[in-house]
Each structure stands twice: as structure tokens, then as C-alpha cells.
Design goal:
This protein is of the alpha+beta class and 153 residues long.
Length: 153
């Protein structure tokens, strides 16, 4: 199966979007030196790029891009619940665990967030610590989470 990637600028750094002919496969944070095309003819990548840009300029709150979501049943449950967190709101990891009927799975919920291949689109940035602290986002990049949450306020 062939796939294509492009890199786009965003307020939280460069984003690498990868898609095949039917689905978006991932959104990744990339280093400044990452050398990937900034232009594409793939309609799905063009749509994803446009929707993410609209999100950052405040014109979009939800995405309608077909995603190829791969993971365990538990991870998919968490990612599905993430999509239910309303724009501009935050939930704690505990609230997310309770939303999927697994109140003791707080750490596992955090791990599922960590491997979300669609940051921004599946809004793991809306999950914060129980004490309202901004905890882990894209590794140690809590500044990106802060920027996204401020954008949604």
C-alpha cells in the first residue's frame, strides 16, 4: 500500500501528516530539519492540512477526516472517549478512565493517550492531571498542550 507525507507549519511546530488513498495514517510532531514535501496532490492530505489550519485559526472545532485507527481494544475505547470531550473543556485522566467504565485504569488511560497517532484531531491535549496540572503531552512537550488549550478558550 502506498502512502504519502507532507509537513505543515503550525503554532505548535511542524506537523507531519501521513495518508494513504483512503485514510489519514498519522499526525506527528517533527524536528525543524525533517525534510519532507510541503506540497501534495493527495486530496486527503490537502483536506487534513486545511482542517488543521482551520482549527488553529479558530474556524474549526471538529474534524471530519477518515482516520486509520489501529490499536488495542482498550486504546480504541480511550481514543473514542477522547473525541467526546467537548472543545474548550478539559477532563482529568481519572474522569476519562471513569468515562470508559474503568476507574482504576488511570495509568493505562495515560499510556493510551501517549500513543495516540492523531494529536489535535483526537484531542488528547484536553486531558490534564486531577490537580489541574498540565501533564505529559507528546513526551515532555507540555508547552504544546498549553498552547492548544489556550487556543480553545
Amino acid at each position: 500500500m502506498s502512502f504519502e507525507s507532507i509537513v505543515m507549519e503550525s503554532p505548535i511546530g511542524k506537523l507531519k501528516l501521513t495518508a494513504d488513498h483512503h485514510h489519514l495514517l498519522s499526525v506527528q510532531f517533527v524536528d525543524e530539519e525533517d525534510k519532507v514535501s510541503m506540497k501534495t496532490e493527495n486530496p486527503l492530505l490537502m483536506s487534513a492540512q486545511r482542517q488543521i489550519h482551520q482549527f488553529f485559526i479558530g474556524e474549526r472545532r471538529e474534524f471530519d477526516i477518515p482516520l486509520k485507527i489501529e490499536g488495542t481494544a482498550f486504546q480504541k475505547e480511550v481514543w473514542n472517549a477522547l473525541q467526546g470531550i467537548p472543545y474548550g473543556e478539559t477532563w482529568s485522566y481519572q474522569q476519562l478512565a471513569e468515562a470508559i467504565q474503568r476507574p482504576k485504569a488511570v495509568r493505562a488511560v495515560g499510556q493510551a493517550n501517549k500513543v495516540n497517532r492523531f494529536p489535535i484531531i483526537i484531542p488528547c491535549h484536553r486531558v490534564i492531571g486531577k490537580n489541574k496540572s498540565l501533564t505529559g503531552y507528546a513526551g515532555k512537550q507540555v508547552d504544546k498542550k498549553e498552547t492548544l488549550l489556550l487556543l480553545e478558550k
